[in-house]
Queue: 4 jobs
Job 1
Amino acid sequence: MEKFKAVLNLHLKHHNALGYGLVTLLTAGMEKIFSAVVFECPCTAAWNLPYGLVFLLVPALALFILGYALSARTWRLLTGCCASGARLRCCCRLRSALVCAHISWAAALAPVTWVAVALLGGSFYQCAASGSVHLVRRLCAGRDSSCAAQMPLVPCQKAEAKVQDILTELKAQSQVLGWILIAAVIVFLTVFTSVSRCLSPVSYQQLKFWRIYSKKEREILKSQATEHATELAKENVRCFFEGSDPKEWNTPSRKDWEQISLLYTFNPKDQFYSMLHKYVNRKEKNNSLGSAEGDAVIPVLHFVDASDISNGPF
């Protein structure tokens, strides 16, 4: 039992890192399965390039779109934007663009992993490069005149021996590109994290408290919403079968829900920890929760918008 508690505490403490690690491992595993079971280079001049690029890039694009779809912030940003009178509130604003940029970076983890692992493996790149006219011309420079015609057969090990050795060069190029991509992502992530933490308007300890608050608010909101919805459903069903009038029920209005669903912006004048926190403090003042002077989107506070009633993005 003690070991189980230790594992659980480790998961709760590092759930973001573990989640990203799991996504990375699953993506790498998928790539290995695709390259070993599904991928088979056609070894023709017409099909090598498009076939290799499709396996290298199309799954990455699909994973990127899936990353967007699984993000709670995506649907927080989009839900209701096409409704009458809401388009101006949702679109063409700097904070929406910044939120989209952060969602894009988070969604890019799986696609980058796919491309990096595929490049390190080399199969997709070898197939695509052997069908590229420009690369073939460069690789065959100084070789026999039949080299260009033999190049599409190289990935299938069917080319002449004097041309087949180019396969090693293609794999080396692919792996170098893969390591460059990995290094670039690590450097960018380190720089981005360091700069965002450096520009954080709150201290390290307050940021830890803020994360705890966001987690507890999400849990309590879900619990209270479930209880409230259950009681309301029971009341409506009772009135339906008994033919009676429902008792007065205090439920947040559409505008109330809209207010707490807005994208979070930090304001040093009033350090609210969420849009719900801001709503209950400004409700009596009858102030709008929209943009105000001094509001700003802070990258290090991205977890605030990720807090949702449900555990999933939908």
Note: The two ends are 34 Å apart (CA to CA).
Job 2
Amino acid sequence: MIFFQTLFHEIIGFLGISRLIEICKTGDYKVLLTLNGIFSVISPLIPFLLLLEIGRAIFYKRFKIEDYKMPFFIFVANRFISRFISIAAVAFCIGVLEKYALFGTSLKWYWFIYGYVIWEFSHFIYHYFGHKVRLFWCLHSTHHAPETMNLSVTYAHFFLEAPYADVVRTSICILMGVNPPLLFIIMFIDGTWGAFIHVGENLIKDGRLGFLNNIILTPSHHRVHHAKNPLYMDTNFCNLLNIWDKVFGTFQHEKREMKIEYGISRDVNPNNFLDVYFGELYGLWKDMVKAPGIKNKLLYIVMPPGWSHTGEHKTARVVKRAWVEENKESVHLVKEVVEG
């Protein structure tokens, strides 16, 4: 009986409808007019879209269990390992750093815009280093390992990535004056959009979303981010606003003539949980063991993925440059390539 109760609560929690059920039980529908009530209505959106995405794939006979299996296993594992770690990390950063904020903000529309720009900057910083520092890539690579794109990918993360990300993002925002209530609103909105942009072609074929593709980061842009095509490597680090990708030169539109290849550049078994979850950490350990001297061993931790003490680097920047040099005459993409 306890097992089924736990399973029921886990399913309700995943679907994000526990608060709505409570509202229906109490009959206090006025709460829907509050901020918490609005969040309660929006929370089930991504799980609903995921189920719709799966349903459409089944209906059109495009459903493959392997496309969803590994993200599901990772989600279940993370529920057991890290349910409260990220929340604690956010609370700790607020408690320690809020008194050092440059200035204070309030729940005004102009502070919301300011806060969102700062949040997007903090997200860019966390995400950029997640690709450019080998140790952080070991945490982030689990999210990039799936070789298809669908909404289940949003749940595929190494359990330590969320605390690392939230420490970086919360610290920057608090120090820049984004007060906690405003920060939580922004985190909710950005988290919802950040999940949605993983939507697969089974639900939205063209992820450009029309005119929005020129204004914000769309599913199309995030599909580019998850690609291992040399041109697309290490691009589109932002979540909703593309301002910082444009500022730092990491913005990249999806090219209609270029088929996206999802996944990571190393050989990985996408159906092996241990390889997907711990494979990059194991690879880092092997490189450190065989590297001569303490300096080289430490450099493997902080240098980009693909860096080698031998000088035979295979970083995203090196791979991209080589690809551009090989293809510049035929596709004329040199000016569009990011210098990582």
Note: The mean pLDDT is 89.
Job 3
Amino acid sequence: MTDKRSVLVVTHTGRSAAVRSSHLVIDRLSEAGICVRVLDSEAEDLQCAGADVMPVSAAAAEGAEMVIVLGGDGTILRAADLARRSGTPLLGVNLGHVGFLAEAEREDLAATVDKVAARRYDVEERMTIDVVVRQNGTVTSTGWALNEAAVEKASRQRMLEVVAEIDGRPLSRWGCDGVVCATPTGSTAYAFSAGGPVVWPEVEAMLVVPISAHALFSRPMVVSPRSVVAVELIPNSSGGVLWCDGSRPIDLPPGARVEVRRGERPVRLARLHQTPFTDRLVTKFGLPVAGWRGRVRDE
């Protein structure tokens, strides 16, 4: 006898469209005999009788076959924080804007759920980064990110003074608004907005992107996935803030040191389509490709 299948549904309940979509997903999963879980912070807004209400913790995704996320990339990142520890795959349904992490669109929702029910999907692993904050050699905080860890200035009026380090060697001192350390997955997020390169997801690397740095050398850099990147706040200067995937802020006093390395645990993303990343870029950014003829066939 096989174990009962279960799926955790995470919803951006602040959007009425997301709530309506979640009802379709929950009803269709239930009709397929799949047990549905929802988070206790969302249960009241969803009002779905028969769903198992779970605490907002890693236990919510433990033992589940999948986490289906209804929202934008922000909602997917929030769900990734729940699912990473158990290795549960995420499937994002885009109800936001660009939605690079999402695999499906709202208009394909019914077909998406049917594919999940029929187990017609693949799973790919995405690199993460682990973050350690030290003060006078003592670890004061830890974190992780799927997209990026960003060290930013805490005060709008004052520039952040930092020294960047790669593999234990100093690289450069910057007066800047911040420094973004990103994964390939995060190359199309904050790092992209800061002028960093787009990196294909299967490339294993880390990106270091200074933000508005006052320096002769302040270009975006792509470093080895085995490297350790450190950003040290200059003592007797202004403090900063560390953001992991745009949330979970950590205050950084002057003299703090932020170390970023490849994460021990990847995030697993469910894929319904084998769409090339190039096509995803063209679609998401609306890139002009008129005039492309492709390779001329040999006659």
Note: The radius of gyration is 21 Å.
Job 4
Amino acid sequence: MEDSGSGSGWGPGWTVSTPHPNGSYSANPAGVSELRNASSSNSSSQFAGVELLQSFKPLIIPCYALVVLVGVFGNYLLLYIICRTRKMHNVTNFFIGNLAFSDMLMCATCVPFTLAYAFNPRGWVFGRFMCYLVFLIQPVTVYVSVFTLTAIAVDRYHATVHPLKKRLSVPACAYVLVGIWLLSCALVAPAVAHTYHVEFQEEGFTICEEFWMGQEQEHLAYAYSTLVMTYILPLSALSLSYLCISVKLRSRVTPGQPSRNRASESQRERKIRKIFRLVVLVVSAFGICWLPIHVFNVLRDIDINLIDKRYFLLIQLLCHWCAMSSACCNPFLYAWLHDRFRAELRKMFAWRRRCSCHGGVVLPHSNSVAVSVML
């Protein structure tokens, strides 16, 4: 296995690329020489399939553009509805809002710079500062999105399985969200210490990559811990939480109203089937979207030669696109398939139509009652 590269591979540097805290190499000329040698070897293998990648450019760019459009607009609209609607200011929706914000930030940082770095023959062309800033934000937003998904599952588990227990308060929710961001930054720290911005003036290109020279065991430990923290544990938590929710809802009978008549029983069964479908979609979307990039990274960390160099960049870019598409799924799964969010969205667009039709004068209307469905 090569002595460079690591982690989750969701950034444009084809690794968990985050900035070195110093950005200076003059104090250790020998280290710079070793880094440049490793960089040259790594770059030659990574860009072996650049011609193949360029041939797929007309297909890849529209796919990524669609992810940016849907991910940014969908999550922004979701965040806007939560912020402007006071009755939606609760713990669950604050978690969903944090997820929308991190997904929106992930689309804005991961996608454009990934494409630019992939298709530009000069490598990273945005300068040292932007390399450090962008490559720091990328893994943090991924961690925040994954941990927030887990927090949503746990919160809904307690709300459904233990409805009589005291729920998380809004101040406590704020502490949890701050903790998620701080934990995400802390987990990125090992990658921060091993990522360098290197300019190859003679070759005419620049890289911003993660290198673990002489620390192979530490590299593997960090890579596999990233896999566990960002995929295995969250997927297990999602599956277990929503399984318990489904079992609880299936066995629940409304107090004081036993299911005696066929109509009420039929309505209850429809609700259970609807919730179960949403549960399956939530877990499946997370598992399917993030599986390819993690499989790719495991193969790369075991032996980079397991992946044909000609298809290396193309496969990694497609896996990265699949992971980023999760940011498009979340607004639909956590909002547009949710009764209350749909009701607020309809009210918002209806209000705008009335304003445009009546010169800005809003006519009185009856308020619709939305039933919130617990995923």
Note: Residues 1-8, 12-32, 361-375 have pLDDT under 50 and may be disordered.
